[in-house]
Amino acid sequence: MTDRILVFNPRSGDGKRSACARAIAEERGYDVRESREKGDTLELAREAAREGASVIAAAGGDGTLNEVVRGVDAEGGLDETTLGVVPCGTGNDFADNVGVRGVEHAFDVLKNGRRRGLDLGSVRWTAEESADSLAGTPARPFLNSCACGLTAEASAGATREAKRRLGVLAYVLSTLQRTRTFQGLQLDVRAGPQNDPVWTGEALMLLVGNGRRFPGERMRQANMEDGLLNVVVVRNRPALNYLTEGAADRLLRRGASHLTRLKVDHLEVDASVPRQFSLDGEFVEGRHLRADARPGAVRFAVGEGYDPSPVDPTRPGRPDDA
């Protein structure tokens, strides 16, 4: 039995890349383990880690990769295992961030790519009125992003059928449809080791990034090795026409007065009512959320395009967290 395992989600994307990934994996001697229903992916990853696999790759989208990481983490296997991604989903943000450009290229990266210690984000949440119960809730990792507000609720509204038919356009259309009726988030945000208040008010969205580079930053990827979370709070109803070309870039452009940007290792968020949070595309509901960075927690196979110290080209010579 090989110790290189591919955890395979046949329902990701349009199904064509998943079929291609399976064929290449079998040709290259991987043990392919297929998820058949919701929850399988996490359990298959746990099983692979329990068996001591040296390489565990996720074939699917960001949600599939999230479940694989969670499964390996639950078995305490992140220190001993190299993780990788074979992009078969709709958006494949994280694969792009680590320099993986397609299905076949992913297998080349798994074989010959550099191994880097990447950060993880970690969240706890509760829908209870009091935040006191947070301490007793289990933490859940995320690789790419944790989002709340318009972007999260719009993503939740993009159906599987629409994503198969339209790809990433399904998310765009869902966001435009949701814009007119979105009522805003009433949030209190604190950050840092002392939980200092950093923002209070009505927000359009809250974005907490680990791997994702947000529109307006003009970077190909975020810094995934600085031990910090990239936080953006967008004030509700900035004076923008969301239907015009480039609206996302203007919404999140650096220096805009409706934005609060932070680089922190710890974040606490209180919402006035329970809201949906998207963790790498998987949805949970909470009123209180605590997010922490886990520096260098996962050993990941990265492509030649991955930059461990990315610089925003709109700010020459300055790191992305300046």
UniProtKB/TrEMBL annotation:
Domain DAGKc: residue ranges: 1-126
Keyword tags: ATP-binding, Kinase, Nucleotide-binding, Transferase
PROSITE patterns, A to Z: DAGK
Keyword Methyltransferase: no
Taxonomic placement: Archaea, Methanobacteriati, Methanobacteriota, Stenosarchaea group, Halobacteria
Protein name: Diacylglycerol kinase family lipid kinase
Region span, Disordered: 303-322
SUPFAM superfamilies: NAD kinase/diacylglycerol kinase-like
Pfam family, one: DAGK_cat
GO molecular function: kinase activity
UniProt xrefs under InterPro entries: ATP-NAD_kinase_N, Diacylglycerol/lipid_kinase, Diacylglycerol_kinase_cat_dom, Lipid_Phosphate_FormReg, NAD/diacylglycerol_kinase_sf, YegS/DAGK_C
